[in-house]
Amino acid sequence: MKITQQTTAHTLTLSLDGELDASSSVILDTELTKPEILNYQKVLIDCQRLNYISSAGLGVFISHLQRFQDANVKLVFFNMQEKVHNVFEILGLDTLMTIVPSESEATAI
Amino acid sequence: MKNVIRISCSRANLKTVRDFVSAYLSVYHLSELHINQIVLAVDEVVANLIIHANAENESQYLQLKLAMEDHMFGIEIEDDSKESYLPSTFREPDLLEHIRLGKKGGVGMALVNRIMDRVEFSSSGNHNVCRLYKKVV
């Protein structure tokens, strides 16, 4: 799992490249745990190169969502592959998290 | 087509297991989405066995055996841990509660149960067998 960061004044974009499983999800957890992440208004997750996600990867997002909401930080996913979106759907997480098709839509939120 | 693999109980081997299951299923003309679902279900069970049942002890091993018969995919996962999973302890996760509490775990078996048609766990002494089945077209 490779995570690339891009920042603007109020937005942090994390681009995920690879597979998020019980082994690799620790890296993402470390990124999302950093206190300074709560200084942004939006955290965008670019999923274009995210080829796989297991419950361990989903668990990382689930575990930080309330913390983000409490700090008024929006967490938005975009460019998600169908097979990855399907995993969110199976659990019903697609209705609890903000997932949009494109970067422009994510930026507009 | 290779249908048996033996791995040590290390998280690093999860990728090996996913590639093994994907390669086995690749000849059956299934959609990418369906292959991903089956691979995910296997990954979830194997991760639980590696992390929880065997405490990531790399001197312990899991054996996985795959089969396809009459459009029914089956996998048998064997291990020799003292901790065996009891399906009767399964509770459907309350996602809103998980979010509120910031829980990281506890949704893997829900994925397995929702994806697979049949999920069985059995134990005899310290020998445990998990069998997963999924009808494929």
Automatic annotation (TrEMBL), chain A:
Pfam families: STAS. It comes from the Bacteria. Residues 1-109 form the STAS domain. One of its GO terms (molecular function) is anti-sigma factor antagonist activity. CDD domains: STAS_anti-anti-sigma_factors. Belongs to the anti-sigma-factor antagonist family. NCBIfam families: ant_ant_sig. This is Anti-sigma factor antagonist.
UniProtKB/TrEMBL annotation, chain B:
Pfam families: HATPase_c_2. Residues 12-133 form the Histidine kinase/HSP90-like ATPase domain. InterPro entries: Anti-sigma-factor_SerPK (IPR050267), HATPase_C_sf (IPR036890), HATPase_dom (IPR003594). GO terms for molecular function: ATP binding; protein serine/threonine kinase activity. Keywords: ATP-binding, Kinase, Nucleotide-binding, Serine/threonine-protein kinase, Transferase. This is ATP-binding protein.
